Amino acid sequence: MTIASSPMSLAVSTLQEGFPESEFLPVEPLMDAPYNSPSGNSNPDIDESEIDLLSVSWNQDYGCFAAGTNHGFRIYNCDPFKETFRRDLKSGGFGIIEMLFRSNILALVGGKANTQYPPNKVIIWDDHQSRCIGEFSFRSEVRAVKLRRDRIVVVLEHKIYVYNFMDLKLLHQIETLANPRGLCCLSHQVNTSVLACPGLRRGQVRVEHFGLNMTKLINAHDSRIACLTMTMDGLLVATASTKGTLVRIFNAMDGTRLQEVRRGVDRADIYGIALSPNVQWLAVSSDKGTVHIFSLRVRVVGEDPSSVQSMTSAAAALSHQYSSSSLDALISPTSAGANPGSSLSFMKGVLPKYFSSEWSFARFHLPECTHYMSAFGSQNTVIIVGMDGSFYRCIFDPVNGGEMVQHEYVRFLKTQLKSR
């Protein structure tokens, strides 16, 4: 089946054949369970010293991450840390690897040096069957791919395509401002379907509530959006701009700003924003070599962060509960580990905004030579992965904050940052 549509000359194919058997070594299926490390999964013809890291990306629950290399890809479990799976490819590597939780389904986009799978093509790969089950081709380079169990989202520089996972049919097309970083995030709970991406104006975030058939535009910053993330239920969005000094948290339903925290004063390139599963903490990594942890004053909805009403069946209730007229449902009056502020914060409204800012509660310092991304692990831990092939696990004090303590360090790949 081949379908061509849109000015981008999109071609969608469901293929019966997979990667050539001579290219990939046989491995055990991944399946919807913790990975088991397969034996004999490396290619003796590929010298480890020639492996370059092209990309790293978390899976949807941050339990593992994928590393795209110039000779294939590898999957790593975070707790405990270990390499669990790899595919070695002689003809080139992958600049984008997107996992679907811990399943056998992966989205692959070739690196620029990949002679067989170019960077304008998305391959949906079923490793259980060792074959390609879908293919999307575009005229321009793919900037990102996002997966959830019912959707495939492909991000180009000026457009986002949303497909149904079951039959690969195109459901939505979204125009964006120039988006070279491929900024886009999805909710991942079964009963919510929310997407956030840059809008058509500088500093604007577009939130699509597909279940409610509603679009919300949030004027988040004066400068261009540099990074954004969303809670698993799609109710909160956190953003940073290209200035890299402030991170803002918004109600995704009505666009109300709920909190603003300050990373620093100097301009910085924000690499990643992460929210803890209980929405109590926020982590920010940047090119300054520091991961900052902030305490959020956002109240958790229910004991279990996954227990949220269906947005389709309770649209009216949610719209009221998270409207600007009832922000008490989202903002806690006090926080156990409050972010420090200036001693002159009592003069808020008189002195410049800097003096009333909320500063980071805890922090961890890293070498400034590479790109890092962070996420929250269990029991007040933060996991950090660097494009230099480094993995850190740090512990922060949830009461006193301050400097985090390094608990684990692994050099999983000796490499240097390479462009796709």
From TrEMBL:
Gene Ontology CC entries for this record: cytosol; phagophore assembly site membrane
BP-aspect Gene Ontology terms: autophagy of mitochondrion; glycophagy; nucleophagy; pexophagy; protein localization to phagophore assembly site
Gene3D superfamilies with a match to the protein in the record: YVTN repeat-like/Quinoprotein amine dehydrogenase
Listed name of the protein: Autophagy-related protein 18c
Membrane topology value: Peripheral membrane protein
Presence of keyword Transit peptide: no
Coiled-coil annotated spans: none
Entry's localization field: Preautophagosomal structure membrane
Keywords per UniProt: Repeat, WD repeat
Organism: Lactuca sativa
Gene Ontology terms for molecular function: phosphatidylinositol-3,5-bisphosphate binding; phosphatidylinositol-3-phosphate binding; protein-macromolecule adaptor activity
Similarity field: Belongs to the WD repeat PROPPIN family.
